[in-house]
Amino acid sequence: MPFSLFLAVLCTRLSFAQTDSASVIFENVRVFDGKSPRLSEPVNVLVKGNVIKAITAFPIENQDGTQVIRGDGKTLIPGLIDVHVHLVFGSLSMQDMLSPDLTEQLILEKAAAGSEQMLMRGFTSVRDAGGPIFPLKAAIDKGSVSGPRIWPSGATISQTGGHGDFRTPEERSRRFFGLPSRAELYHATFIADGRDEVLTATRENLRYGASQIKLMAGGGTSSAYDPLDVTQYTLDEMRAAVQAAEDWGTYVMVHAYTPRSVQRAIEAGVKCIEHGQLLDPKTLKLMRRKGVWLSLQNLVADTPNMDPLRREKRKPVLEGQERIWDMAKKHRVKLAWGTDFLFEPELNEQQNRYILRLQQWFGNAEILKMITHDNAELLQLSGLRSPYPGKLGTIEEGALADLILVNGDPLVDLSILAEPEDNFHVIMKDGKLVKNKSGN
């Protein structure tokens, strides 16, 4: 079956109930607005279409067709945002990826199920940091599949032997032998060398609808060929991607850990660094001066079945992880948070629990602000390439209606967020109720 036809069939077959309401009133709720360290006094919130129209202490007239949700003093917060996910490859294991039975149909089915589960955990927006995301995003936007808003990067862009070079040992260079690798055929990555190829790969992703571009600028722990310390892409190659992205009004984010790779990326004009667990104060100060974002994660600990070589490569990253959050906070770097689960689908259920790991370095209000308002600010770097015009990460009049009605006060007890099935009574995305256990 042709892929386009399969996608149409999939979109028809997979439909998840969403309740469309012309107007919804949340009565008697306390609001975390995304910025304040305190909740509001009890208020009423009116949503019309997909926008917050009014927030008032006074009663709101209940017109015909308006759905009223009694908050009973519960907390209304913005939808959660994860700025480093891999919705497709986070739904697949490495065994799935290497299986000769892998098909585009299986990929989309697993990713569709994973996207619905992510939305039901309260994540109404995500930035996809690399992979064949465009068919899934189209299905979600159409309403055929349930899932969060997606800011897509498309295929990662990597040099030969870089972090995005996923070739098996028997797969040879496309440039010399003319055959694209399996990972390239599945739109996971572009292996691009030289200014011209980097320009083409960047423009291909933009053509497909990328809201930002993901480049591999340094070694990685899960890639076979590159030691962690190597710097990837020359300044000229990286500048080519930045220029092409800026011509489309958007930006480049890079995978990088070390000061050398990050400093080169900043010189090239990169706006966001992913990871950075090995950075030093000098580089963090440079990021602060240049206004460059640091998108950090709390990477998972070693697992029993992990390859010994990967365990060895991860040691310095896990050690650096214990220092970087506090250092970045001290130097007032723009910080964002994401999970970066990849090829371990069982980890996805822990997405909310990973929020609690931030309590080593931040107070509850700081964390809640980071995973709503601050992450939304990073999403808006996409400018006119942002796929969803409007304001997110905040509860204010005129903002988009991505909302969660929480049973309790997360500013006092952040662990409430770790149990979304029990504690998220209502989840609203784009003005639509995707979960409502309030009884109203």
Automatic annotation (TrEMBL):
InterPro entries per UniProt: Amidohydro-rel (IPR006680), Metal-dep_hydrolase_composite (IPR011059), Metal_Hydrolase (IPR032466), Metallo-dep_Hydrolase (IPR051781), OTAase-like (IPR057744)
Listed CDD domains: Met_dep_hydrolase_A (cd01299)
Signal peptide annotation: 1-17
Domain Amidohydrolase-related: residue ranges: 75-434
One Pfam family in the UniProt entry: Amidohydro_1
Ranges in coiled-coil conformation: none
Keyword set includes Chloroplast: no
Tagged with keyword Signal: yes
PANTHER family (UniProt xref): ALPHA-D-RIBOSE 1-METHYLPHOSPHONATE 5-TRIPHOSPHATE DIPHOSPHATASE
Protein name: Amidohydrolase family protein
